[in-house]
What we know:
CATH superfamily of the largest domain: P-loop containing nucleotide triphosphate hydrolases
Organism: Shimia abyssi
Subunit structure: The complex is composed of two ATP-binding proteins (PotA), two transmembrane proteins (PotB and PotC) and a solute-binding protein (PotD).
Order of helices and strands: EEEEEHEEEHHHEHEHEEHHEEEEEEEEE
InterPro entries: AAA+_ATPase (IPR003593), ABC_SmlMolc_Importer (IPR050093), ABC_transporter-like_ATP-bd (IPR003439), ABC_transporter-like_CS (IPR017871), Mo/tungstate-bd_C_term_dom (IPR008995), P-loop_NTPase (IPR027417), PotA-like (IPR005893), Transp-assoc_OB_typ2 (IPR013611)
GO molecular function: ABC-type polyamine transporter activity; ATP binding; ATP hydrolysis activity
CATH architecture of the largest domain: 3-Layer(aba) Sandwich
Bound molecules: adenosine-5'-triphosphate, magnesium ion
Amino acid sequence: MREENGEPVLADANANDVFVEFERVQKSYDGENLVVKDLNLTMPKGEFLTMLGPSGSGKTTCLMMLAGFETATHGDIRLGGTSINNIPPHKRGIGMVFQNYALFPHMTIAENLSFPLEVRKMGKSEREQKVKNALDMVEMGAFGGRRPAQLSGGQQQRIALARALVFEPELVLMDEPLGALDKQLREKMQFEITNLAHNLGITTVYVTHDQTEALTMSDRVAVFDDGRIQQLDPPDTLYEQPKNSFVAQFIGENNTLEGVVKEINNGIALVQLDDGELIDCMPVHDSVIPGARTRVSIRPERVEYNKERLQEGVHTLKAEVMEFIYMGDIFRTRLNVAGNDEFIIKTRNAPDVERLKPGQQIEIGWLPEDCRALDA
Ligand SMILES: Nc1ncnc2c1ncn2[C@@H]1O[C@H](COP(=O)(O)OP(=O)(O)OP(=O)(O)O)[C@@H](O)[C@H]1O
Ligand SMILES: [Mg+2]
């Protein structure tokens, strides 16, 4: 570990080197219940990683431990190879943005931004230059003289971002930073944040419980539930190859059917649904063995009802059309399939695609690789 004035400082990590590390981290607030159970996570420099999960799953707790406001009950958290317990907070180089961004109301915007630099004992002219750069970065250069109350919600959020970036941190933590904004502004800010982070090469840990936000912004997403990472993967892998029922259900729209595994042949599982019908799927979860109960997951856009397009030899299911919704670019149809009347299919609107009618009886099918047999 490198030292400066007798204090350990961050090592210079190269790109691709591990920068942020959680190793077997546990956290309990009351000495009894673990709210973070066994967290293992490594991030290279420059990565934009999102922690996504339901309320109470431990996301903020993980961020707080990384920031140093909470300490881990067990395990180790490292930054640039150095255990953060040994790094004083002002040397961690972490910028933070939270949902209630708490700009100081009695200070101007420029003073708000200057504050973290004063704390770091930076000289006046350098401070002014950095504040100007940070304001320009979020396109708020003309607003330095105003007070927070004189800005819109989106502008305040931009200032909060500038304040987190003003001291050029290597790592930025953001906890639901866009939660208070309307949809349109959110989408604009999502784009700005990811652009800034990538252009500046900042490593970012972003927390949200909005799955669309997670999928569109991130290099990788860690899906949290019950104090554990259920899956950690890039957005497309997460959506297309969920590893368990929780992730399949939590990310994107998903159809579920339940049954028993009859056999597994050549990597394809034959599953008998509870109403007796047979389907073909990919055995994904470890628990999928002959005789075991399973829950299968199939995305709405992977279901086919045009007989000519159904692959020969695969099993098909009878379905009754409950509802047909014309959405312009796609048709969204709700079916009753094997007793599940919330089965959704999505079809691209094209001249050759039949518009279904409620009450109509159809046959549906899919490629076995698009149907995933998961934990029951
Ligand atoms: N300071 C605290 N003292 C005691 N328990 C806490 C404290 N902070 C959080 N908890 C508990 O720890 C668990 C995880 O909380 P955490 O805030 O990390 O969840 P989260 O995933 O950020 O949820 P949300 O999406 O609602 O923000 C919850 O059960 C919560 O009640
Ligand atoms: Mg939280």
